Automatic annotation (TrEMBL):
Occurrences of domain FBA (ranges): 73-288
Cross-referenced PANTHER family: F-BOX DOMAIN-CONTAINING PROTEIN, F-BOX ONLY PROTEIN 6-LIKE PROTEIN
Protein name according to UniProt: F-box domain-containing protein
GO biological process: ERAD pathway; glycoprotein catabolic process; SCF-dependent proteasomal ubiquitin-dependent protein catabolic process
Annotated TM spans: none
Signal peptide: none
Entry-linked InterPro entries: F-box-assoc_dom, F-box-like_dom_sf, F-box_dom, F-box_only, Galactose-bd-like_sf
Residues in F-box domain copies: 1-47
A single Gene Ontology CC term: SCF ubiquitin ligase complex
Molecular function (Gene Ontology), one example: ubiquitin protein ligase activity
Highest taxon listed in the record's lineage: Eukaryota
Entries under Pfam families matching the protein: F-box-like, FBA
Amino acid sequence: MKINDLPTELLTLILIKIPGKELCKSIVLTCKKWNKIINSESFWARKLLLESLASQKLITTLINFNCFEPRRLYFKNPYEKNLIRNPCAEFGYEYWHTRSFIMLKYSREVGSSDYYDFYNGLYLQNCFHDSLTQQEYWGFKIEPDDYLSRPAYDLEGNPFRYYATPYYNATKYQLIDLLSEGVDQKVMEKIKPKIIIEDWYAARTDFGAEYKIDVIFYDSQYKKLEWFEYSEKVPKGGDGKWKKFKKTIENYSKDVRYILFEHFGKDLEFIVGHYGTKLTNSSLKLLF
């Protein structure tokens, strides 16, 4: 018996075990029968569930709003996952941009629609990743998980690493391009998933600290659509416990393309060193 003599269902069970890139690169060209199976929406929907790359709830929601593109979702699913990279310093300063006092929400237009950071002479869309030396210079230091504060733990009980701030405003941020992440514009227009922002912060037990977070939405031309901020001063002599900031955003413009996540901290004693706010476990998720 040749493999093509197998029933379509059995052949599907074999093909669905093959990595997606190999399927699209060469296997799909094998014959018309295989091509038909691989190019079917049901094949990629099953593969999504088999490899736990999308929940049944997500798939059902996208189908109900006629936004389900299973192959696209298989290779790049931006929903129900954290779009903030390296939130807990697992990879040092990778993916974070740092500036001592960027305050991007006060930027003005220069020439075209480019938003400009006057503090540092940078166009918003041309921010480059800083070197380790620059990161340390602009005020951050990665510390052990329990250095003069209570450790923060993930769901598996493992302690987070975190970024400690100095005596002046030290800012780090990520600019998230929703289109590059794989977000479908139809989804933002028809479904408008909830945008959930979370961030963890703490002060040392022997120093007071200030925490602040800004989240700004821009359209494709970097025009500011909406933004919010939150700040808190934690007095000296506290218990060192971690606090979670959480914000759910539902009523936002359908034209949002970029989201700027920016947070900063400092100590309240103005002492040289890294005695300010501790930051970790940042997240930005699109949920249905």
